[in-house]
Each structure stands twice: as structure tokens, then as C-alpha cells.
Amino acid sequence: MRLFAQSGYAAVSMRQIAREVGVQAGALYLYTPDKQSLLFDLMDQHMKDLLTAWQSREQANADSVIEQLECFVRFHIRFHLPRADEVFISYMELRNLTPENFDVIQIARGAYEEILHDILKAGQTDGTFKLVDPKIATFAIIAMLTGMNTWYRDEGRLSLEMVEEIYLDLVLSAAGTKD
Amino acid sequence: MRLFAQSGYAAVSMRQIAREVGVQAGALYLYTPDKQSLLFDLMDQHMKDLLTAWQSREQANADSVIEQLECFVRFHIRFHLPRADEVFISYMELRNLTPENFDVIQIARGAYEEILHDILKAGQTDGTFKLVDPKIATFAIIAMLTGMNTWYRDEGRLSLEMVEEIYLDLVLSAAGTKD
DNA sequence: CTAGCATTTGAACGATCGTTCATTTAATGT
DNA sequence: ACATTAAATGAACGATCGTTCAAATGCTAG
Description:
2 copies of one chain form a homodimer.
Chain A: H1 2-7, H2 14-21, H3 35-55, H4 65-80, H5 84-92, H6 99-125, H7 134-151, H8 160-175
Helix pairs in contact in A: 3-6, 4-6, 4-7, 4-8, 6-7
Chain A binds a DNA duplex through residues 13-15, 23-30, 34-35.
């Protein structure tokens, strides 16, 4: 995972991976059928972890849509930030998946986007959110949140908690809740 | 450019590039010193085009910060959307640049981000934007706008003009102008 | 038509790729 | 201590990589 994130799937050789785990290249094939599976399993597990983590979070079903959106934003940040390598790989290496593997990941990604989409649609329907297009807002918000991974550093100017509040404010504003 | 965008720099061979332009691999070296230069020149030209295009846009200096932000958003969308391949490469292939080439691109990228940053800071200072942190808002807005490239298709549900208005609305809201 | 220059070829270089497999080494059960 | 199973090696496979370069080809000026 570290090697793929650092140099990219295509640029990392099985021999480099073997060296990193202290083994000869041939031995890797006792654990994986091929290089492609290493990439797919990494991405597939990441998406499964993501969806599972969402489903098993402390859930308050009677929440207002604003609280639901707030919950989603905080969840997204807290899940993605500590997983910089997985997230990076999952976004950058999609084209190195075989078509079948690509489809699996895309479907999981769609399921995750639908979580936010449903919240935004509900908020638009009951008038809480002043949104022109919930589908586009979904893309925009997720891109905005995930983009954090490209610049956030633990030793940076702002703490995780502060960044979380700032992004929450940006998202709630974009959704049209600030009146 | 098309090959790099499609398969990634590392996965494209000089022989594939040669075949695409109808020539043998050796002949490419009459036009480029090496493969790396192909990638760098592509990205460097893209960044130069971007900054030049911004500087030479029809400029109304007395604009309000809201108009400036609106101008930036429209500019970003109109510049990036028709250049899907260049943008994709410029974001995905950064790690395949040599350190010196990487620095050149990063500096140009910083210059572009500073355009938006300056607008947001000005708007925060004069009270037009209700922003907690202009620097983070800069990252968030650019990520949000650039993310459009991953899903927008010409034959899609919405026209470029409509998408532009929707994103403009999202950005202005996020900046805190909608009261 | 030819001389001279520019362009392209195609073979070759050494290196590295993902993957396989006979063989060796390590661990386990009796 | 030995038989058996598991794990790992390291050499080898054919393929492909970026790059070089002598030789062949195409083009232009005289």
C-alpha cells in the first residue's frame, strides 16, 4: 500500500514489494495470485471498510437533515484523513484495474455517494437546503472533502478538530442552510 | 497526451506513443530528449496556458469581490472542462515528475491558487465573505471545481451553462455571500 | 541527375518486468 | 530422531522497457 501510494501501481515491481516485506519475489505468489489482485484487494477492502464504518456508526435516526449532513461530513473527514494512502490509491489507480474489478469498485463508490445524495435530496424536499441540484452538490461536496487529503498534515497549522469545523461550515453554507 | 491520460505515464511505452503518431520509437528522440520531458512539457504548458489565460482575460478591475469570485469560478470551469486530458494528467502524474520538474509545476500551481486566495482574503477583510479560513476555502473551492472534470460529460443531463450556474451558486454560498 | 542534408528506420543494448517452478530450507507431528 | 508438510528461495522464462546508433531513405538545392 505504501509503495503503491508513493510511486503508483504501474511503477512498483513485485520485486520491490518483496524486498519491502523481506522476502523473494517468488514467495509473494504464495499469498496472491497476481499483482492485480494486490491492487484490487486493497481498494475493495477500503470501500468495504468505508461502507461498514458508516453503517455501524452510532446512529440517531430521528436526526434532522442538518444533523445528518453534519454527521456525514464529520464521518467522511474522520474516516478519510487517517487513511491517506488508501484514499490516494483508490482515487488514482482506478484505471489500473481490470474492467471487472473496476466495476466492483465503482458500484461501492456509487453506494457511498448515494448516502450523501439521499441526505441532500431529503433536505431539499423539506426545504431545509436551498439546493439547485442535489446530485451535483453531492459530487461537489465529496470532491471538496476528499481534497483535504491532498494538503492536510498532522503537524500543520490547524488541528483536525478545527479543520473539521471549518469544512463543516463550508458544507452547510454550500447546502444553503445559513440564512 | 491522450495515451498518458488513458493509461497513465508509467504504463505507456515510447513504442505505443510512436505507433500513435505513425513512426518508429527511435524517431521520437529527434523531438524529445526522453520520456520524462514529454510528461513535463505537457504539464508545464498546461500551467502556463492556465496562468496566461487568466491574466489575459477581459479584466474589469473595479469589480466587487463577489464579481471577482464569480469571474474566477466561471473562468476555472470554462478553462478546465474542455481540457479533460491535460487536467487529469496534471493531477495524477505529479509523482512521476523528477523532483526539479515537480517543483516547477508546484510553483505554478501555487500561483494559481493564490489568485483565488487573494480574492477570498479581500472579501473576508471587507466583510463580504463570511469565511473562517480563506486558505482552506481556497483548497476546498478548487477541489470542488476541479472535481467536475471527473463526472461532466457533454452529452450529460445538464448543459455546461447550467452546471456553471449551479457551481457558482455552491461557491458563493460556501463563501458566505448568501444571507 | 546528383550532392548534401534531414529524417527515419530497425536492430541492438542492458535492464527490468510479472510469473513459474524445481529445489532447498524451516516447521511440525510422532 | 525422523517423516511429512509448509514456506521460501533463486534461477529461469519470454516479454517489454527506454534509449542509442549505424544504415537506409526522403527531400532539396544546384
